[in-house]
Design brief:
Layout (H helix, E strand, L loop, with lengths): L3 H8 L6 E2 L6 H13 L10 E7 H16 L4 H15 L3 E8 H9 L10 H22 L3 E5 L6 H8 L5 E12 L20
Antiparallel strand pairs: 1-5, 2-3, 3-5, 4-5
Helix pairs in contact: 3-4
């Protein structure tokens, strides 16, 4: 069997130590990210995933927003550790905001021809998110970049929406950082196969 995809999946890891030593032009990265998401599958080809790619000062503004939001929520004696964590995300080359367009989800849920599945469209939109995030993550790793995903929504939603002019119907689902790999990930552990898989032949 061809194992090219599997090999890429094995290489894909969460990288927390990211830098800005990236040689790929920003415009090329943006076009690549768009193409990967465009070709990511979604139920009924509903295409509910939206993405906002932030470079340079805009990337830093995102993590300034996160830091400000958390400073209001985290106890002062614990905030220094939180601030250091946010600074590590700010040190990355760029970030991607992944959104779900809830107008699309609702339209499919309300479609009388899909009445049997109307409550599933919300679950399928999440599947589309997972597909898109995994595909982009793996693709960036294939190109020598490190990636991590964060979830500060809904704490930052309104401030981010105001800063980047996000449509009301877009619901923030994840914040992905990427950049040069400054320190590789540790070894990954796996649970026993018999706790995860069954086969009937």
């Amino acid at each position: 069997m061809d194992t090219q995809l599997l090999d890429l999946m094995k290489h894909r890891r969460t990288i927390y130590n990211l830098g800005r030593n990236v040689q790929i032009p920003q415009a090329e990265l943006y076009q690549y990210i768009k193409a990967v998401i465009r070709h990511t599958p979604s139920a009924f080809n509903s295409q509910p995933v939206r993405a906002v790619v932030l470079f340079n000062d805009n990337h830093e503004k995102l993590w300034d927003i996160v830091e400000t939001a958390l400073e209001e929520k985290v106890a002062p004696d614990a905030f220094l550790r939180t601030k250091a964590k946010i600074s590590s995300f700010r040190d990355a080359f760029a970030s991607i905001l992944f959104y779900t367009d809830m107008d699309v989800v609702q339209a499919y849920a309300d479609n009388p021809h899909l009445a049997t599945y109307q409550y599933q469209e919300y679950n399928w939109a999440e599947e589309a998110q997972g597909n898109a995030q995994f595909a982009v993550w793996t693709g960036l790793e294939e190109n020598g970049l490190g990636v991590n995903i964060q979830h500060y929504d809904p704490l930052i939603n309104s401030a981010v929406a105001a800063q980047f002019d996000i449509p009301v119907s877009w619901q923030l689902r994840a914040e992905m950082n990427f950049g040069s790999i400054e320190k590789p990930a540790a070894e990954k552990e796996f649970m026993d196969d018999d706790q995860r898989f069954k086969v009937f032949d």
